[in-house]
Request: fold
Amino acid sequence: MPVGTLASVKGVPQEVLEELGVQILLGNTYHLYLRPGIEQVKKLGGLHRFMSWRRAILTDSGGFQVFSLNDLRKVTEEGVTFRSHLDGSSHFFSPENAMRAQIGLGADIIMAFDECTEYPADRERVRASMELTLRWAARSKSYFEDHKNDVPWHDHVGPDAPVREGERQLAGGAAHEAAELGSAGRTRASAPTYSTQALFGIVQGGMDLALRRESAERTIEIGFPGYAIGGLSVGEPRAVTREVVEATIEHLPADKPRYLMGVGTPEEIVEYANLGIDMTDCVLPTRAARHGLLFTSEGRVSIKQAQYAGDEGPLDPACRCRVCSRYSRAYLRHLYASNEVLAQVLNTVHNLSFYLDTMRAVRHSISLGKGPGFLSEVWSRAKP
Amino acid sequence: MPVGTLASVKGVPQEVLEELGVQILLGNTYHLYLRPGIEQVKKLGGLHRFMSWRRAILTDSGGFQVFSLNDLRKVTEEGVTFRSHLDGSSHFFSPENAMRAQIGLGADIIMAFDECTEYPADRERVRASMELTLRWAARSKSYFEDHKNDVPWHDHVGPDAPVREGERQLAGGAAHEAAELGSAGRTRASAPTYSTQALFGIVQGGMDLALRRESAERTIEIGFPGYAIGGLSVGEPRAVTREVVEATIEHLPADKPRYLMGVGTPEEIVEYANLGIDMTDCVLPTRAARHGLLFTSEGRVSIKQAQYAGDEGPLDPACRCRVCSRYSRAYLRHLYASNEVLAQVLNTVHNLSFYLDTMRAVRHSISLGKGPGFLSEVWSRAKP
Reply:
């Protein structure tokens, strides 16, 4: 999932995201809560309609963002008081109002409000944090069950409305595409059976494998249509990340989406897909693009380097995106060195294309029954 | 002509410019001379190939840009010594090396090196400046005639090369489009008769109508395939601009392109087209877009205003550009208020679309034999 923090994947129009084959975007509840505000988005028919995006959206709960504020927050049993990074104003997120916010935004998939445990942390701290996340998960689900029909598009089943096919669409983009294609002729008579969002639970437990197992089992007891692994990529070594993912995923049901939050490089997403992860999100392809770091089939390219100033070749000879089809490394290097806005735009389009191609290759490999294992070799060769 | 200072119309990929119907872009020699450098562009086959733009390009001479540096320049008979706005390094532009630079860039239309007279200036100063521009025009032409075959694409008549149809293509985009469409099957046997750039002269003379007439007549004596009116939009009242344009254009041949440099608003370009101006360039549509000022058929929209936060309507209901077809004023306002890069991209696409639609309406009106006069009424009603 490309990250569209403020209802925009930075620099890339929605029609280009569609052309790239993006099936689902991530939006950040914390940022959208501050700007333009939940009530505003809700009044405008929800996030899909607001940003003109008919495909799927997932919103995070705001928990991770709020926990990133460090000194600007205070956690209690009830929730988290925090200060806006924009103007210092004071706000409060609880499981209930994080759900209210995400219902107001109206994404297809929303996330339980959790505490992202800091790293490193001792065992008692990790257990206490995990227990808090479990209580918040139950409160998130309870609030959601009572209010799931408040979603802005709930009663809006016209041809302009984003189409909901419920959980079935969420596990596979193809089904969603089909639903989207069918929307023009949709009538009330054929309205979807499901018309609520899907609330996913989040497994915590720090780097402690026993606590991860306990968190997984007790989150499953609460019961969600999909499960995320949170609290990783918070500074731990990559070998530890992998170990925790392996130890957690075996306790998550294989017939429900398994979502690894905030990961990672192209090699990592292939590696985790190989372990059974169905979904990931990461700012890396878009943020790296803005800093001139580009992912290619020949390895990383830091486009700012002088060696590219006279390079007439495409950024990635194996890539068929609109950037590699048209522009040279020399031109991309010039745009970056000259601080041209188009550098951000083109670099982001290419990196997203590379990530989406990677996931298409993974899906193709799975569909052939080979498993994505062989891709790991491809990517390990591609490492700089 | 949209302005693509550094080989990019800020934020807009070339394929979108093509979709908008842009027939010709302006590049700034001064900026390209500093970054990426003339030799670099020349080695890469010229500006068209470097930026992957097969349609027409005009480069200015660098004169206006250098004169904008104020304290950083020194003018002599020989040329102008100036300091880079980037690193303070010292450089020298003369008619000869401004031609050398523009031949190296390889635009379809290049401009004589002139002195843009400051405003206000007394009559003696204006005359002296005009005389200098005339001597520089003769030197520009002389250097160009001796070196016009040094253009990077001169001997390159493969299917990848931008096609040159010489002066015939320059006066009309349709002819150029036809030339472009015909390029795939082109062979050496059918290589164009003309394969040089077109060097335009520039009329100066400040706000003095007699000097403008003299400058026009003596520039025509030197002889160019097109003539520009320079030295306007330098701080003088709009009524004076109009008076000077009217007094100058009557002395320019109607069968050659007449180019008014650095003008203006949509109303102004219609007004000047009505007087006989064939070409204009201005940073206004692109720069205003980046500051949230949008041109619409209903007048100016300052998209940052809070009144648009809940406005679900399109930016301009009469516009069919990809922005107005898809996004709401509320979304555009949010992007701008949140400082999202996409705001620059979408706002620029719309403003360019509005300008190009305006010029299409002007051409249509001319083709109907009505003259563009009635459009002035349309735009005067549209003024805020």
